[in-house]
């Protein structure tokens, strides 16, 4: 029987148990660390009212009602392909959102784009999955379509095959030659560097992504919970970089890259580190994950410089590369234009109320 529970500081035990049934025959998503996710929900409950729709066995659905804005959200949705049960759950959620005056229901989105959101569409790509990639059973998109949802933002990931990488490298040779001449310092993003610049990195990310339609800001405390020295330990120190303006000392761009640790099947309680886990990878795929330029410094070719910087060490350390989760209207996609690549597609959905 479907229940609607008001979040009161604790998620029921069944919340953590459902995925075993849901993903019995699918590519299994990397699970969030339960303590971290519980802490995020607890903090966000101060700015949102949270309802949980669940039968405690085959479906969980979080209804998220922010104090500001006209969109309500659904997130942490996991379900078997039961159309009737999902119809019931989403009908209750939509009615509650409508009663509260929201105009749209958007998701899957867990409070903000700092957390799990979007669906992956279509067949499983050749790489299976990469770290933090939205992964879900193929029937999810059909369930949302039947419930009246349509894509509101679309994304893609591009895998460049190994044979193509030397061509990309050669074509970026002119950019590589200019790296020593630009008025910016390339600061390799080692864990100590992250700690030294943690506050400036937080401010830079807020500035870069703050105008994105699906972006929802997080507090500095929550940012440190998610992105800290432990996160920096997983980054590739050879390709991850901060761009700092020589004249002002201001951070103006960043590129966070790391190997795809997913093939190691590490438990959520064992964070990946480059030093410990990179040597264990038999096939080494670089993930170009979070790359961006401060709005004040755009239209200066800095995105291309970031890409070129990553290529300097790429051939020594990696077999191939995935440019991850780019919005389909984002100019950064053009870095790989003209080369053959494999594509995976994703979408964030919305339903008018």
Characterization of the model:
The protein is of the alpha+beta class. The protein has helices at 19-22, 34-44, 83-99, 139-146, 165-171, 173-178, 191-196, 198-209, 220-226, 229-234, 274-277, 302-317; strands spanning 3-6, 48-54, 59-66, 71-79, 104-107, 119-121, 150-160, 184-188, 241-245, 251-259, 285-293, 320-327, 341-352. Strands 1, 2, 3, 4, 5, 6, 7, 8, 9, 10, 11, 12 and 13 form a 13-stranded mixed beta sheet that branches. Helix 5 packs across helix 12. The longest helix is centred in the N-terminal third of the chain and has 17 residues, at 83-99. It is globular.
Total helical segments: 12
Can you count the beta strands? 13
Low-confidence runs of at least 5 consecutive residues: none
Task: Compute the CA-based radius of gyration.
Answer: 21 Å
Span between N and C termini?
25 Å
- Describe the sheet with the most strands: 13 strands, mixed
DSSP helix fraction: 25-40%
Which strand-content bin applies to the residues?
25-35%
Helix and strand string, N-terminal first? EHHEEEHEEHEHHEHHHHEEHEHEE
* Mean of residue pLDDT values: 87
> Rough shape?
globular
What would you call the structural class?
alpha+beta
């Amino acid at each position: 029987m479907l229940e609607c529970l008001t979040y009161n500081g604790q998620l029921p035990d069944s919340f953590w148990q459902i995925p075993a049934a849901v993903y019995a025959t699918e590519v299994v998503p990397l699970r969030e660390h339960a303590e971290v996710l519980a802490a995020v929900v607890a903090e966000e409950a101060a700015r949102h009212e949270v309802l949980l729709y669940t039968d405690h066995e085959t479906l969980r659905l979080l209804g998220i009602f922010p104090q500001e804005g006209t969109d309500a959200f659904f997130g942490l949705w996991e379900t078997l392909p039961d159309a009737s049960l999902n119809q019931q759950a989403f009908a209750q959620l939509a009615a509650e959102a409508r009663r509260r005056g929201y105009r749209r229901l958007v998701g899957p989105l867990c409070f903000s784009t700092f957390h799990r959101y979007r669906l992956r569409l279509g067949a499983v790509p050749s790489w299976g999955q990469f770290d933090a990639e939205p992964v879900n059973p193929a029937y999810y998109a059909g369930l949302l379509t039947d419930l009246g949802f349509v894509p509101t933002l679309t994304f893609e990931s591009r895998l460049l095959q190994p044979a193509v990488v030397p061509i990309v490298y050669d074509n970026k040779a002119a950019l590589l030659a200019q790296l020593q001449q630009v008025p910016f310092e390339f600061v390799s993003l080692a864990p100590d560097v992250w700690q030294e610049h943690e506050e400036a990195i937080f401010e830079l990310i807020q500035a870069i992504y703050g105008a994105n339609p699906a972006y929802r800001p997080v507090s500095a405390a929550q940012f440190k919970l998610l992105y800290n020295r432990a996160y920096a330990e997983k980054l590739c120190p050879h390709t991850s970089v901060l761009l700092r303006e020589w004249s002002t000392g201001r951070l103006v761009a960043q590129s966070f890259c790391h190997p795809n640790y997913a093939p190691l099947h590490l438990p959520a309680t064992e964070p990946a580190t480059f030093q410990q886990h990179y040597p264990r990878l038999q096939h080494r795929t670089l993930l170009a994950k979070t790359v961006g330029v401060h709005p004040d410094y755009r239209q200066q070719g800095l995105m291309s410089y970031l890409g070129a910087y990553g290529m300097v060490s790429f051939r020594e350390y990696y077999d191939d590369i995935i440019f991850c989760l780019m919005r389909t209207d984002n100019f950064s996609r053009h870095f790989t234009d003209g080369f053959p690549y494999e594509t995976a597609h994703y979408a964030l959905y919305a339903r008018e109320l």
